[in-house]
């Protein structure tokens, strides 16, 4: 029996509320800064409540880019680039990983375990470690300043392959035997039985890999030379690092709020599937 202690209940709620305030306050200040003009943001004290320039600032950023500088592209273009990259990385990782895990678990071929461990060892070789040879291969294939150059080098995932392999190994062998007796081909078994059973795992991995692709900075920085292919993280970072003038903090904060919106929406709308995919044990 759990003992009811009002003080501990109050204390736990107070800690949760305090943690929420600590996390939410910087986001609130970012939103507040995005609703004021530049002059207000350069005066002390910093405002704590929203201003009257919300639609003006967001319209300027989305349609004209940062402060209307010559050569800058509209922020809507960078949002589209990041969306294409994040979706491409997430979907590509899931497709390659689930097919490779299916082959490793359900097909008998020479050096099967060696192939799996060769994939698993790549966890020790992230993009940052193999950045030079990867860049050389991509440049040699002519994929600089292209969506394929942004996506393809990042879609291999040993982690997702390992998770799908462990899930497939927990599926009862009787299902595969029953499908074989009924005359189902391996791909029919994969499509009609394994894929529906894996939907929660796929949803959880999609959320993780989407955020991973959206937050990429180093690889897009190296692989793009044209502003038409800049991503959101690159754009915000470049505009914040100015040396000849004071940054337009109101526009930068508007860009930051827009950059946070897609990952937040993905987590909010897929939170139930995400949690189930991480904690569900019954198959």
Write up this protein.
The chain has 15 helices and no strands. The chain has helices at 6-33, 38-41, 54-64, 75-106, 112-121, 131-140, 147-151, 158-170, 173-181, 186-197, 199-214, 218-223, 232-240, 249-269, 271-279. The chain folds into two domains: 6-64; 75-279, MetI-like fold. 69% of the residues lie in helices and 0% in strands.
Topology order in helix (H) and strand (E) letters: HHHHHHHHHHHHHHH
Whole-number mean pLDDT: 83
Alpha-carbon Rg, integer: 24 Å
Fraction of helical residues: 55-70%
* Range of strand content: under 5%
CATH domain class of the largest domain: Mainly Alpha
Major sheet characteristics: none
Structural class call reads: mainly alpha
Provide the CATH superfamily of the largest domain.
MetI-like
Low-confidence stretches: none
Could you give the distance between the termini? Answer: 31 Å
What is the overall silhouette? globular
Q: Which oligomerization state do the chains in this entry correspond to?
A: single chain
Count every beta strand, where a strand is a DSSP E run of 2 or more residues.
0
The number of helical runs is 15
Can you name the CATH architecture of the largest domain? Orthogonal Bundle
CATH-assigned fold name of the largest domain: MetI-like fold
Give the count of structural domains.
2
